[in-house]
Design brief:
Blueprint: E1 5-6, H1 7-13, H2 20-28, E2 32-34, E3 37-38, E4 44-45, E5 50-55, E6 58-64, H3 74-77, E7 81-83, H4 85-104, H5 114-128
Antiparallel strand pairs: 1-4, 2-3, 2-5, 5-6, 6-7
Helix pairs in contact: 1-2
Length: about 130
């Protein structure tokens, strides 16, 4: 292990992203912040830094505990960072809200027929333009 690792490699190695190019795209899209400032894919990460990660509806705030530029087992990857307690509570709360919202929505009793599918597609096409 070296003293610093590129942020895109580190995010891939600790399994936040499936590929390094996805990590790079997230960084370039402004979804990753290091110590509160926008990151570039070539920015080096060091232990003790705080990284804010937005991935879909999930928001993570992690502290770098270790470095690795190689992707290994998930059990090893989890030892390379520590999620903050505040971040964990926020994620659990938003997950619970999504579950409640999903439970409040009634499931359809049947699949749409061919005519109903066409009507739905027509409705979407006419109202989204």
């Amino acid at each position: 292990m070296s003293e610093s690792v590129r942020i895109d490699s580190w995010l891939w190695a600790v399994r936040f992203f499936k590929t390094r190019s996805l990590a790079k795209a997230a960084i370039e899209g402004g979804k990753i912040q290091i110590d509160g400032s926008k990151a570039k894919p070539s920015k080096n990460v060091q232990p003790g830094q705080t990284i804010a990660i937005t991935k879909g509806t999930e928001h993570f705030e992690v502290v770098v505990e270790g470095l690795s530029s190689k992707r290994g087992p998930a059990s090893v990857a989890q030892t390379l960072y520590q999620e903050t307690e505040q971040s964990r509570q926020r994620r659990e709360q938003s997950s619970e809200q999504r579950k409640l919202a999903r439970a409040a929505t009634a499931a359809p009793d049947h699949k749409p027929s061919k005519k109903e599918r066409r009507d739905i597609q027509r409705f979407k096409r006419d109202n989204l333009e």
